[in-house]
Amino acid sequence: MRIVFLGTPDFSVSCLDALINSKHDVLAVVTQPDKARNRNMQVSFSPVKEEALKHNIKVLQYDKIRLQGVQDLKDLNPDIMVTCAYGQIISQEILDIPKYGVINVHASLLPKYRGSAPIQWAILNGEKETGITIMQTALGVDSGDIILQEKVQIKPHETAGELFDDLAKIAPSVLLKAMDQIENGTATFTKQNEEESTHFPMLTKEDGHINWEDNGDKIINKIFGLNPWPSAYSIFDGKVFKIFDADFEKADVENVGIIKDCKVSCKDGYIVLKDVQIEGKKRMNVNDFVRGCSIDGKELK
Questions:
Q1: Between 135 and 42, whose confidence is greater?
Q2: Are 116 and 216 part of one and the same domain?
Q3: Which of 50, 172, 272, 296 is the 20 to 30 Å CA partner of 150?
Q4: Residues 135, 46 within the same domain
Q5: Which uninterrupted H or E stretch holds 194?
Q6: Where are the alpha helices (DSSP H) in the chain?
Q7: Degrees, nearest 5: CA angle 136-144-88
């Protein structure tokens, strides 16, 4: 099939590569506009654009695809369009262009975890499994009919970054299988159960702030669910104190947020610090950190 691929971040690259190396023909890639990455205004390409250029594939970029991209996409005359974390809303006019419509690769088991950060939110909420969904794109956010799904288990203490890599590895095979089914007419399209749908917002840096009044499981989920970004953190002596790895010991405590023997008290026990970073310093093992900083008896806020 003749394909136009729409995607932007690292997660999209494995699916793009799979399509490039398949029997299908990638006509063009659509990705978010280039961004200035530093004060010198050096331009940064999206990972998808970088990958497309390596293969001499045409790259299209629009501030608003629904206003600027319609004619270009009509001229390409694709059989199907594939979106994977593209980052813009697609209009009905664009959805109607390809013969087989538009399909989307989403990193959750829809209808759960619609939205832009399904990997992080699954860990934040203590889920035991997640997966990849290939769906027919509709106007609603991640609300189209499900074509194919594949589950993966979320391992204990798996970070969002590690789960991201796991899902990026399986997404291409699920996508190609769904495309084969669409092409040969065997695909099934199952409507999502709206009563089971959940939608979670985009994450911000502030979402990483730890509330030591929370129970330990919730704090641990935050530490791993927000690793590597935006990172779970507290405030120590007026500085941002990031926590990348920790364990939880259940116990009775009196005062929360107090550090003793590299442990921080919370609602129902202690968060045992393992991998940390204080503002202005490099990330390090907590034992190395305490050699240069007296922390016992101090409070994290």
A1: 135
A2: no
A3: 50
A4: yes
A5: none
A6: 10-20, 47-54, 65-68, 70-76, 92-95, 118-124, 160-184, 216-225, 286-291
A7: 80
42 pLDDT exceeds 90?
A: no
User: Which residues neighbour 118 within 8 Å (Cβ) at sequence distance 6 or greater?
Assistant: 106, 107, 108, 130, 200
For residue 264, being part of any structural domain is answered with yes
For the chain, the first-to-last Cα distance in angstroms comes to: 55
Token pair 């832009």 in the structure block, residue: 116
pLDDT tens-digit profile of 134-146? 999 999 899 999 9
- For 159-170, b/e burial (b = at least 16 CB within 10 A) is bbebbbebbbee
Structure tokens at 166: 């796991």
Decide if 296 is inside a domain.
Answer: no
Other beta carbons less than 10 A from residue 150's beta carbon: 15
Tokens 């159960």: give the residue.
Answer: 193
Helices (H), ranges, 77-159: 92-95, 118-124
Using CA atoms, how far apart are residues 106 and 122, in angstroms rounded to an integer?
A: 13
What pLDDT does 43 receive?
85
HSE, side-chain direction, 13 A CA sphere, residue 112 = 15
- Reading phi first (left if > 0) and then psi (alpha if -120 to 50, else beta), residue 101 is in left
User: Do 50 and 185 sit in the same domain of this protein?
Assistant: yes
Q: Is 297 part of any domain?
A: no
Give the domain extent around 181. Answer: 2-196
